[in-house]
UniProtKB/TrEMBL annotation:
Keywords: Iron, Metal-binding, Oxidoreductase
UniProt name for this protein: (2Fe-2S)-binding protein
InterPro entries according to UniProt: 2Fe-2S-bd (IPR002888), 2Fe-2S-bd_dom_sf (IPR036884), 2Fe-2S_ferredoxin-like_sf (IPR036010), 2Fe-2S_ferredoxin-type (IPR001041), 2Fe2S_fd_BS (IPR006058), Aldehyde_Oxdr_Iron-Sulfur (IPR052914), Beta-grasp_dom_sf (IPR012675)
Source species taxonomy: Bacteria, Bacillati, Actinomycetota, Actinomycetes, Pseudonocardiales
PROSITE patterns on file: 2FE2S_FER_1, 2FE2S_FER_2
Organism, as annotated: Kibdelosporangium lantanae
Gene3D superfamilies the record matches: 3.10.20.30, [2Fe-2S]-binding domain
Domain 2Fe-2S ferredoxin-type: 7-83
Length: 178
């Protein structure tokens, strides 16, 4: 193998500037967990299929087990640890707690990050695979089918899906009533 196999990267994680030197093959998940001790992001399948490792990269949700750390150079990364502000839970976090949107909790960090990203996508008018009218003039209604489709990349082995859907819908309704 020739050439440089390590890179210096610089990015913001949960509003904190971070620098790391990583092997070019290091995933964002491993850089967060092993390089920066941000262990709230979970390693589930390590294949991009379960969503436990979901984080926000410049506000968009990504599975960090399939994202190379070098691709995050110069970006803003938000992990579950960065969702709350000044010790206050976000409305989605509060709804998960009140409505029992988790059981064992292993998938919860990915579910929460995905929900934050999904709600932003919905507010922006992005359609999903189940959206009937994809006209930009008619933003999709957020109902159970929409939430289930939009959150389908995040698996819950305990089956807390009904509570997760309720938490997302409640949060969305509160956001639109403000």
């Amino acid at each position: 193998m020739t050439g440089n196999t390590r890179s210096d990267i610089s990015f913001r994680v949960n509003e904190e500037n971070c620098q790391l030197t990583v092997d070019n093959r290091t995933t964002l998940l491993d850089a967060l967990r092993e390089g920066l001790d941000r262990t709230g992001t979970k390693k589930g399948c390590d294949l991009g299929q379960c969503g436990a490792c979901t984080v926000l990269l410049n506000g968009r949700r990504v599975v960090s087990c399939l994202t190379l750390a070098v691709a995050a150079d110069g970006t803003e990364v938000t992990t579950v640890e960065g969702l709350s502000r000044a010790g206050e839970l976000r409305p989605i976090q509060d709804a998960f707690v009140r409505l029992d949107g988790f059981q064992c909790g292993y998938c919860t960090s990915g579910q929460l990050c995905s929900a934050v990203g999904m709600l932003a996508e919905h507010r922006a008018g992005w359609p999903s695979a189940v959206t009937d009218n994809v006209s930009p003039d008619c933003p999709p209604d957020l109902d159970e089918a929409e939430v289930r489709e939009r959150m389908s990349g995040n698996l819950c082995r305990c089956g807390a899906y009904p509570s997760i859907v309720r938490a997302v819908l409640e949060t969305a309704r509160k956001e639109t009533s403000r």
